[in-house]
Design brief:
Two copies of one chain form a homodimer. The first copy, chain A, is an alpha/beta fold. Chain A has 14 helices and eleven strands. Chain A folds into two domains: about 160 residues, 3-Layer(aba) Sandwich (Rossmann fold), CATH 3.40.50; about 180 residues, Dehydroquinate synthase-like - alpha domain (Dehydroquinate synthase-like, alpha domain). In chain A, a hairpin with a 2-residue loop joins β10 and β11. The longest helix of chain A is centred in the C-terminal third of the chain and has 20 residues. At the A-B interface, α4 and β8 of A face α4, α5 and β8 of B. Chains A, B: Its cofactor is Zn(2+); Co(2+); NAD(+).
């Protein structure tokens, strides 16, 4: 099976889940817990059990589905369950799900009894290429994404592309936004390669691996986000704000990748204005997202609210809103401060795009 | 000024708080927060301000006094205040208080935006000799002490013995239990020296420093409690259970050191039965605590409840209750499993002691 070495753990590409069997045989865990959400409990857990008929001794902890539930309340629920099931320091938590499960589960594990082992089995394209690699854990609070969290490394990450079959097209496309991002910030050839795909579902295991390898290289170089790791935040300053706004104001709210796709278009506009991203690159970036994503009807009159949310972003220092922007496709600059009026202009640029 | 080097930070013995002035001058913090509880806000903050008249730019976060408030609810309150005051990653949290403030404040800081700088200014004898050294953060949940927490190092620890003048005799004596513990587990001469004191308030800065140096040596050798650090848990398996029981069942509940003092007597009894602690040492240990502490009227009929709480202890693995016990004064063994009946016998031994 293929694998990538990360920060003291291995990322396995392993549909058989043999790597999980091996790891459990090698370690002597006192108890095994599997964290799922309602959806992965229904659709992914049976897949896992079919692959591993011998794995019978575990307890299930389930949280509700959706980013709006990545909260301290549900994290407390996980802690309480671990306590009630008498988890000790030699227990293992397996996070089986998308970013909500992997982010919140790893936060819960990294703080329970000052840290128990955890293992990531990301089941969405988004969490496979993003959330499960890099040692960040987190929950949201007061509209601020991942504002409470730790740096903590899993025992392993297992990428089983079979789980992607359980996803809706919308979920797959959402994850694809981060794949495109990896091309824009670090690898122009990869960008050209993946935007040839007719739709996100055509992504191959090889391309997923390439996407993860890009992110992994960056986080290994800068685990605590002092420098180059910030390039991964491209699209996320504006994108997170739109995502948060949508979560608290819209019934059918945006998925993470959908919001980040909007953020990347807006921030490409900023990059053109500020650091000379070529007009043709701005067009290529806009066209790429235009190919896979619908045009979001971003309400007029919410720009001040969005700026307010951006101000709360973890990435800021001293009240300035901090951006990572590409100066060309394949290369990204960090620590760029942007004037509020220009940010509003970029939102307007998105609104006026012809999809 | 005297100082001790710990794990990438310095412990200053510094009544002038010059070390704080120097640290703030050297770093460029975007905002400074001071966490206090109701008592330290009233009694210690004015002392700090009198020592540092130039420190005027800070926000105060206050939590209620007492171990029963070292909870996730008040931790959420700290996180919300940091968010509302727009703390960014370059903010500093100064924890000014006893163990509740230093444990909970450092947990809040170590998880806010994945970790902001924090500084410990312990104001009780207990937190000076114990909670503020060793990089453990934590809050309690469902009667289990420090069950949620992280390992995180402060930027510095500042010991100003002037703050001890603000304490009641009961508070000072509580902290003294941990000083005696350091003698029992690691330094027989120090044990003999400190039990000569008429009362806990007579403790000198030199003796406080010696006590911290013992703990610091142990935690430097074993920061993540894989081995020798467990010796610091002597008295804490039974002591924590009694403390938790008292917190949820008694109006005038035991202080940490008072409970640990009981735990050390009980566990010295276990040590005599199991690993040959000499009878004379058991008598010396009992006599030491008898000198400074009242006899606690430990209710009959609560032993099963206490055992239930002990089972939840973080230090356990695979359902066994794990003890650290001295085989003589000045030396301590770890990873000892004890039969439930013997534990009950040790509680009975305490109950029957003549004070």
């Amino acid at each position: 099976m293929n694998s990538i070495e990360s920060n003291n753990y291995t990322i396995y590409f392993d549909n058989s889940l043999q790597s999980l069997t091996d790891l459990l045989a090698e370690r002597n865990y006192s108890k095994i817990f599997i964290l799922t959400d309602e959806l992965t409990g229904e659709h992914c857990l049976p897949v896992l059990q079919a692959k591993l008929p011998d794995l019978t001794e575990f307890d299930i902890i389930e949280v509700p589905n959706g980013e709006e539930n990545k909260t301290i309340d549900f994290c407390i629920g996980i802690w309480r369950m671990l306590l009630d099931f008498e988890a000790d320091r030699s227990a293992l938590l397996i996070n089986l799900g998308g970013g909500v499960v992997t982010d919140m589960g790893s936060f819960a594990a990294s703080t329970f009894k000052r840290g128990i082992d955890f293992l990531q089995i990301p089941t969405t394209l988004l969490s496979q290429v993003d959330a499960s690699v890099g040692g960040k854990t987190g929950i949201d609070m007061e509209n601020v994404k991942n504002v409470i969290g730790t740096f903590a490394q899993p025992q392993a990450v297992i990428i089983a592309t079979d789980f992607l079959k359980t996803l809706s097209d919308r979920q797959i496309t959402s994850g694809f936004a981060e794949v495109i991002k990896h091309g824009i910030i670090a690898d122009a050839d990869f960008f050209q390669e993946i935007i040839q795909l007719e739709n996100a579902r055509e992504i191959s295991e090889d391309q997923i691996q390439k996407s993860i390898a890009i992110k992994n290289k960056v986080v290994l170089e800068d685990p605590f986000e002092k420098g180059i790791r910030k390039t991964l935040n491209y699209g996320h300053t504006i994108g997170h704000a739109i995502e948060s706004w949508s979560l608290s104001n819209e019934k059918n709210s945006l998925l993470h990748g959908e919001a980040i796709a909007i953020g990347m278009i807006c921030e490409a506009y900023l990059a053109k204005e500020l650091i000379g991203l070529p007009e043709t690159d701005l067009e290529a970036i806009s066209a790429a997202f235009l190919k896979y994503f619908d045009h979001y009807k971003m309400k007029q009159g919410i720009d001040e609210q969005l700026l307010e949310i951006m101000k709360q972003d973890k990435k800021n220092t001293s009240g300035n809103i901090n951006f990572s922007l590409p100066n060309k496709i394949g290369n990204c600059q960090i620590n760029l401060l942007v004037d509020n009026n220009l940010i509003k202009e970029s939102l307007e640029f998105y609104r006026n795009l012809e999809f």
